[in-house]
Structure formats: C-alpha cells, structure tokens
Amino acid sequence: MSRGRSVRVYLADGKAAGILTAEIMNWTGHVLAAPRTRFEGVLSRPEFRRTGVYLLIGADDEGSDLPKVYVGEGDDIGKRLYSHNKEKDFWDRFIAVTSKDMNLTKAHVRYLEGRILTLLQEAKKAKIENKGMPQFDLLPEADIADMEAFLVEIQLVLPVIGVEVLKKPQQLKTGEQTQYEQASEAIQFELANIKAGITATAREDAGDFIVERGAIGAWREAISFKGNIKSIRDDALQTGQIVKLGENNFRVEEDISFSSPSAAAVFLFGTARNGRTDWIVVNNGATYGAWKDAAIERELNSRI
Q1: Element (H or E) spanning 192, and its range?
Q2: Considering only 85-94, 100-109, 125-134, 181-190, which range has the smallest mean pLDDT?
C-alpha cells in the first residue's frame, strides 16, 4: 500500500479560516494560503518576495456551483497578487506555492503554471478564469523531471488544506492495475436497477468512492434531488463527464469520485438513496454496508 506522508500545517492566525502555511516532510516546497480578507496580513511575509506560482479561488459568477480558479506565476508573487487584488473581483482565497531553498526560477514557475492549468482542465472541478492556456516546456529534461516531482507534492498538499480542484480519480487503462487494485483487499462494487436502466461499477481509493466510466444512470430528477449532488450532475453534463442517452438515461464517460457510496447512488438514481445497501460487492453478494461492517469487526478482532 502507499506509504504515509507527514504534512505540517501551521495556523498563523491561530484560526482555521485565517492565514496558514503547509509543508511536506523532505519537500522543498512551501504553501501559503489565506482568505482575501486577510490579504494585508501576508504582504510582509518573506514568501511574498519569492518566485512562485499561485491560484486565486472564488465563486463562479455565472451560476455554477463549481469554483472559479485563476493560475499565475511571478518572480515576486506579492506584486502580482497586489495587482490582482485591485483588478480581479471574483476571488476570495489565494494559494501561493514557493520554494524554501529559493531554487525555483522564472522558467520553473512558468512550467508549473501551464501544468496546473492542464490539470485543472482535466479534473473538471473548476471554471478556469485564465484567458489562455500558456504552456512552457523550454526546460532541460532533468528540470522537467524535477518540476513534475514538485507538482506531485502540490497535488498531495492542496487537498489537505481543502483545495481539491486538481484532484481527479486515476483513470484505469485496459490491462493495467493500480497499486490499490493489486492489493489483496482490492474490492469492486456493482449497482443495478433494470427498471430504471441503471448499471454501474465502483471502487474505493484513498477515501473516495469512485463510480467508474461506462456506468449508466437514470436521468430522472425527484423533488428531493437537489443541492450539491444535483449541481455535480449538472456540471458533469456541461463538462462532458456524462452524456445523455435518449430521454431517460446518461452514461459516465470518465471516473467520477464521491464522498460516499450514498452520494454516488443518488447521482445515478436522481433521488434519495442508501448507498450502503444499493452497492453490492462483486462476486460476493454482500452489501457495501455489510462488507464494511465485517471489515471493521476483523480489524477490531485482530487487535484483541
């Protein structure tokens, strides 16, 4: 299984909603995050005088529940953010990524900017505010490898501070297995409702419940189908993650992650559901709930 990592989060204001920094053990990167309301509180910090890449995050003013994100870079990110504070209205939070050893160059952060924009586009969890999609690959091969490794750490630390716009379920290729699938405890789940034309498979991965591409859901929407899950489905249709099949159904075109099996079931049925009983363990017949309860009991008994 994946090795554990240590992430140190420091609340500079002593409050979760204030200025915070995040670092990963043995990573040269440094993350500074703050709400726009505390912008004046970070202007004097040394990170703001470094070369880095940054994200401005806010609500989408076009009605989508997806956040809007702008990605930028600079030799002195404090100056860039100061100008954005005057010129851009949408954002209410920013994330700045710099290097503790001061080794990031202008070329490095231009490369990171382009790669982050690509990841945003692929994840489809945010509206991109940038007018273009700049790409910069004029780096030596060794530097590109270093920046790709640096980017992996950014993708790891951002969800820890509540920013999941780059997070995307790993797409499985035919004939390939992830480390998770190769593990002895790898489990796949299935869900089917003949009357509604629903059929789907799913898997768990690092706390996410992932509905796999090829799943078929029902397009109906009950009165109770509203709020976050409805917004996720509406946005999935807009971004091409799902496509309509006639008047009654839709097909999932790429893996979509959910916070729970129930959220995944609601997404597919368009009405309130209990995912713990809807999802069945493949080649086992047990419900997700029974399987999970048994796993918990086994873990408890192993400690006695």
Answers
A1: strand 188-193
A2: 181-190
Q: Place 82 in a pLDDT band, splitting at 50, 70 and 90.
A: very high
Rg (CA), the chain: 22
**Dihedral, CA of residue 72, residue 73, residue 76 and residue 81, to nearest 10:** 10
User: Which pLDDT tens digit goes with each residue over 9-49?
Assistant: 999 999 988 999 999 999 999 999 999 999 999 988 999 99
Angle made by CA atoms 170, 172, 174, in degrees to the nearest 5:
165
Sorted by sequence, the CB contacts under 8 Å of residue 167 that are 6+ apart come out as 123, 125, 155, 158, 159, 257
| Cβ atoms 133, 110 nearer than 8 A | no
Query: Cβ–Cβ contacts within 10 Å for residue 244, how many?
Result: 11
CA angle 281, 283, 287 (to 5 degrees): 25
